[in-house]
Design brief:
Elements (H helix, E strand, L loop, with lengths): L2 H12 L3 H13 L3 H18 L2 H4 L3 H12 L7 H5 L1 H13 L4 E2 L2 E2 H5 L3 H10 L7
Antiparallel strand pairs: 1-2
Protein name: Rho-GAP domain-containing protein
InterPro entries: GRAF_fam (IPR047234), Rho_GTPase_activation_prot (IPR008936), RhoGAP_dom (IPR000198)
GO biological process, one term: regulation of endocytosis
């Protein structure tokens, strides 16, 4: 994550509208520099793997958000306002983890976070929406 997008990501996490939150985070992740997006995808993929064993290790997406939110989305300056936003930093990370595995028309939501709109359209056109799972 970058300092440049920090305020917008926190603002998206504050929304009560889940559809807006997901859409805003999608567009903001796409604004990350390519290398940052690639690294974020690798990290989130790893965190999803850890969360798959949450019954044994108690590391749920929410707990991972608490641990990695402040690290991945650290505010540029340590202020009282920044401390008040830690909860929303955690929410962003939790959303990334939770929606990595959710399927949207046959491809993972997180994968779509790292693709621009044209790439998503191409991916959707290659997906058989009517196949049985």
């Amino acid at each position: 994550m970058t300092y440049r997008l920090h305020k917008e990501l926190v603002s998206a996490a504050k929304s009560d509208n889940l559809d807006y939150r997901l859409g805003a985070i999608h567009s903001l992740v796409y604004k990350l520099p390519e290398k940052n997006r690639e690294m974020l995808e690798l990290l989130i993929r790893h965190l999803v793997n850890v969360c798959e064993y949450s019954k044994e290790n108690l590391m749920t997406p929410s707990n991972m958000g608490v641990i990695f939110g402040p690290t991945l989305m650290r505010a540029q300056e340590d202020t009282v306002a920044a401390m008040m936003n830690i909860k929303f930093q955690n929410i962003v990370v939790e959303i990334l983890i939770e929606h990595f595995v959710k399927r949207v028309y046959g491809y993972s939501f997180l994968r779509s976070l790292f693709m621009d709109t044209q790439e998503v359209s191409k991916e959707l056109s290659r997906t058989d929406l009517f196949r049985s799972t």
